[in-house]
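Pilot study result, target chain (349 residues):
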Amino acid sequence: MALVPSSVGDGPVFAEVDMGTDSSAPTVRATVVQASTIFYDTPATLEKAERLLAEAAGYGAQLVVFPEAFVGGYPRGSNFGATIGSRTAKGKEEFRKYHASAIDVPGPEVERLAAMAGKYRVYLVMGVIERDGYTLYCTILFFDSQGHYLGKHRKIMPTALERIIWGFGDGSTIPVFETPIGKIGAVICWENRMPLLRTAMYAKGVEIYCAPTADAREVWQASMTHIALEGGCFVLSANQFCRRKDYPPPPEYVFQGTEEDLTPDSVVCTGGSVIISPSGTVLAGPNYDGEALISADLDLGEIARAKFDFDVVGHYSRPEVLSLIVRDHTASPVTFTSASMKTEVSHKQ
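Predicted structure:
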């Protein structure tokens, strides 16, 4: 097994892994993108996404995974002017601009992403900030290689201060999509530390487990390796690599508590994107050097070999002792009975 890095002009580094695959099992080339949002500029971010997607497709990628909140941005360092008991006017204006950078699902940006996936003939997993009225969600969108939007996963548990800007997803958006290149699903950042959510994904048969994140700490790698071993699945974790200059300058945007120590070239997120096999072998990455495309050829035969050892929801489960119930219906704060009655009448007709 060899890691072969190569530079592509002045662009990102592309790391390719030769897994020595078994020719009797399907092989999928997967790429994780490590790159920064163009903050507060969604059209420019979409243009950057297409450039990166085209580059990955040029290397033969069949599946491309982008980081958490790539479209819409991860508001690292901001507190939106919030303290317990008060919110500042500047913080409220900051949220207004962040809300304006988010996208509607469905909407024109989703259509454009679908067109990109179809144009480059790749399965696309994209982190976005979704706007639903005046509530925002940290969301992953899925597209097939024919240019069809497949569905979404909304982050069910934002972490810490994320909870003041993002809503909570419900059980209706934890999909695993069966595709010709494998069963694909996604869990976002620290959701990956929730054992019950992981178990739900395993029960849905996830084979290519995408983990877009904003966590660049070295300890994140331990979580990713554990999930690969626990789930008997490939794990693809994509994070942004960002410098201070990738965000608007102060006073428009301030990194609370650290701004005075930062220069435009200071790294504020070091990446760490990685691809790991079902046996726990690191196939590519982690990369902490800059924006990059990180790729590996996934031998899907590795899944069966790993499950022979440990199938967490199969031969290694004890449902008579331990079991899980997932409430996977849509949770709505308001239900109108007249709408329900109209639906019932239409079904009877």
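One observation from the pilot: The longest helix spans residues 42-58. A full batch analysis is planned for the follow-on phase.
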